[in-house]
Amino acid sequence: MFKKILIANRGEIALRVIRACRELGIQTVAIHSEADAASLHVRLADESVCVGPADATLSYRNIPNILSAAEITGAEAIHPGYGFLAENSHFAEVCESAGIKFIGPFPECISLMGDKAKARETMMRKGVPVIPGSEGKVTNEKEAIEIAKKIGYPVIVKAVAGGGGRGMRVVHRQEDLAKSLQTAQMEAKTAFGDDGVYIEKYFIDPRHIEVQVLADEKGKVIYLGERDCSIQRRHQKLIEESPSPVVDDRLRRELGRAALDAVSASHYVNAGTVEFLLDKDHNFYFIEMNTRIQVEHPITEMVSGIDLVKEQIKIAAGRSLEFKQSQVKLRGHSFECRINAEDPEKFTPSPGTITSFHLPGGPGVRVDSAIYLNGVVTPYYDSLIAKLIVHAGTRDEAIAKMRGALSEFVVEGIKTTLPLHKRVFDDPAFIKGRFSTNFLERFLSSLSLPLQ
Ligand code: ADP
């Protein structure tokens, strides 16, 4: 096992990794920007190194400085968390050549899955159902029109290098296709440095269902059930649950088989997520594979009892998975609410100082957060400040538990998404499990009272 790990991240995920390392008897090195010198991850790690100024491109994404920090402190491995360098194949490659273990899949796999058009092709070849659309990238208007005609409108133009819900354009009519293609290419170039785009059929009211996998370096693979992440705002997840209220045992096995096929097609190693869209008739289609630990991983931990971050570290250390698929038992129901430092109606960032603060507690309540009283939420990074996770025997019990936990949760001094979560957990359609990826937009536009 590793003796020392550097965590190339900040916030709640850095804390999450520090906790896993402690349990495994591993020393930790935090990196931080100048703006994060007083952060909790810096205080809780055994050592810390400042890697640059507030701007993440000069600190949390600064590969030479991060590698130097690992070398100076003698860290044998780097955990990238999510975001920043987590899905940067060049970073994984540089770690490898510096003799530092990157805790995640191999660089070839990251770059294959990081190109969403190539990922689609790989899955198609393996027989994993993908959303009808283009084979590979679309480069010109004529090609785009032909594909759209074949699959039917509406279609969605997506950036091959897209992520975080950005780089997508829905097109309803042929007249708009040429312009949307052009704009999408331009936006993709600016946002991701790659103007490659592809086309998919746009599903009207799908559910986002994803499968968690774990694969060791010896070829053993298991899946840990699904997460329903349909409650989204601008294609970004806000509430997740496991299991999905619409997935039965049979569908779960089918999803699991498809996820295992996706793993074998991409020679995947470590923890990963295979994402699907589910249509009204419960047909599922691959959309992408995320080659990292995800924000919403705790709900899978709650229902499976498996610590995914510890597993990531053990796999990277060359250990074999200790359980077989038949030993994976999913129990009860779990929800996660993402508490963001944002205006809950406009979703604009709300940085500032936390002037009052109280965390909920009790059995089955977990909070993954790096905020503290008088701590400052800066405008430089992701707005996620806490994840509120509950686990109970049934979905109804988990809803009741989440309602109680939300009512106890106090964060003052900044605006947060807490009031929105409270409203959603009181909504009759949500309570019945009747929703799609468009639920939240409609919910917000029908709200009569302001959120507070
Ligand atoms: P990202 O990598 O940016 O997260 P994804 O491909 O995973 O992008 O898609 C994010 C979300 O966008 C999905 O969960 C879904 O809500 C929506 N979406 C993506 N593709 C489609 C599609 N073909 N039809 C309908 N919605 C889609």
From TrEMBL:
Domain of life: Bacteria
Keyword annotations of the record: ATP-binding, Biotin, Fatty acid biosynthesis, Fatty acid metabolism, Ligase, Lipid biosynthesis, Lipid metabolism, Magnesium, Metal-binding, Nucleotide-binding
E.C. code: 6.3.4.14
Record-annotated membrane-spanning stretches: none
Catalytic activity: N(6)-biotinyl-L-lysyl-[protein] + hydrogencarbonate + ATP = N(6)-carboxybiotinyl-L-lysyl-[protein] + ADP + phosphate + H(+)
Record-linked InterPro entries: ACC_Biotin_Carboxylase, Acetyl_CoA_COase_biotin_COase, ATP-grasp, ATP_grasp_subdomain_1, BC-like_N, Biotin_carboxylation_dom, Biotin_COase_C, CPAse_ATP-bd
The protein's annotated pathway: Lipid metabolism; malonyl-CoA biosynthesis; malonyl-CoA from acetyl-CoA: step 1/1
Molecular-function GO terms, alphabetical: ATP binding; biotin carboxylase activity; metal ion binding
Residue ranges of every copy of the Biotin carboxylation domain listed in the record: 1-445
Assembly with partners or alone: Acetyl-CoA carboxylase is a heterohexamer of biotin carboxyl carrier protein, biotin carboxylase and the two subunits of carboxyl transferase in a 2:2 complex.
Stated role: This protein is a component of the acetyl coenzyme A carboxylase complex; first, biotin carboxylase catalyzes the carboxylation of the carrier protein and then the transcarboxylase transfers the carboxyl group to form malonyl-CoA.
Protein name as it appears in the record: Biotin carboxylase
Organism: Candidatus Manganitrophus noduliformans
Gene: accC
